[in-house]
Amino acid sequence: MIPTHNRKGVLLRSLERLARLRVPAEHTLEIVVVANACSDGTAAAIAEAAKGFPFPLRAAEEPNAGVAHARNRALKEAKGDILFVLDDDIAVEPEWLAEHLAVHAERGAEIVGGKIGLWFEEKQPPDWLVPALESVLSWKDLGNEVRAVTNPGDCISGNFSMKRKVPETVGAFHTGLGRKAGSMLGGEEIDFVERALHAGFKVFYSPKAVGLHWIPASFFEDAYLRRLSIDMGRTRVFMKKKLPLGSILRRLLVNPVRIFGHQVSECFAVVSGNRKSWMKHRIKRWKQQGGWLATWQYLRGRTSTQTRAPGTMPPQS
């Protein structure tokens, strides 16, 4: 299941890698791409690509903008007992599918999250790339051993799989979260995995089910990083089921202090020529700003999760 929005070129490049997958003999594979409010001919491009594709490949169209809407449409369209969730800018190796299936079979997993590395458009990433920034860009590495997952944030929707009974039990993806045009909110998969953990489903991490997240040069521009970081800070607040008064006061009073502290550290880093430290504090400052803004939105009842609830599992077509 792959959601996409007006990124036909990126999608087709990722499909080239999926065409190389090895599918174990006892399994069959169908790839469903959800064209989410697309206007760039994505559905037609998929239909053309399907003619020479080694596995069944088809498009479904979802007019409601937002990645959560697209994922929920995919839940309705997909036919299998194990559902694989990928982003349109994730490249996988030939054994990716088999590695997911192995953890399901050997560990009795109901959700499996894979490792996510970074795939740079340029040969080398910027020399100021720091771990705080790598995590903003969806990097996820929990080590080289299969392990049980208890933190919902350790399973990212760009590369995970689940048994169909999971969404049938916990419901669909929360449409008040997730990216859409004009917003870089996330968290729809974290909210989903959190509900699955609370329901008692077993979640595992697979180090060998690797996906590489495509990072174009534009992702390192200030405008993109600022918007992404601020919305990550907003997401953390929006995902809270309830904010106690003490937490609200702490965020409103303490966040400005932290913002100022990171601003001061940025200035020192600029003066000393330490670009890595500068970027680290810049990212953290933007996240704190997002959290502060979202707390005010929460008080006013203006968050997307206060007005919407997770959907039920869509019936299959």
What do these coordinates show?
By secondary structure, the chain is of the alpha/beta class. The chain has 2 domains: 2-219, Spore Coat Polysaccharide Biosynthesis Protein SpsA, Chain A; 221-299. Helices cover 43% and strands 17% of the residues. The strands form 2 sheets. Strands 4, 5, 6, 7, 8 and 9 form a 6-stranded mixed β-sheet that branches. A 3-stranded parallel β-sheet has the order 1-2-3, sandwiched between helices. Strand 1, helix 1 and strand 2 form a beta-alpha-beta unit. Helix 8 (222-238) crosses helix 10 and helix 9 runs antiparallel to helix 10. The mean pLDDT is 89.
Key phrases:
317 residues, alpha/beta, Spore Coat Polysaccharide Biosynthesis Protein SpsA, Chain A, 2 domains, six-stranded mixed sheet, three-stranded parallel sheet, 10 helices, globular
How would you briefly describe this protein structure?
43% of the residues lie in helices and 17% in strands. The protein has 317 residues and is α/β, with parallel strands linked by helices. The strands form 2 sheets. Strands 4, 5, 6, 7, 8 and 9 form a 6-stranded mixed β-sheet that branches.
Question: Could you outline the blueprint of secondary structure elements for this entry?
Answer:
Blueprint: E1 2-4, H1 8-18, E2 31-36, H2 42-50, E3 57-62, H3 67-77, E4 82-86, E5 90-92, H4 96-107, E6 111-120, H5 131-136, E7 147-148, E8 159-163, H6 165-170, H7 188-198, E9 203-215, H8 222-238, H9 245-272, H10 275-299
Parallel strand pairs: 1-2, 2-3, 6-9
Antiparallel strand pairs: 4-8, 5-9, 6-8, 7-9
Helix pairs in contact: 8-10, 9-10
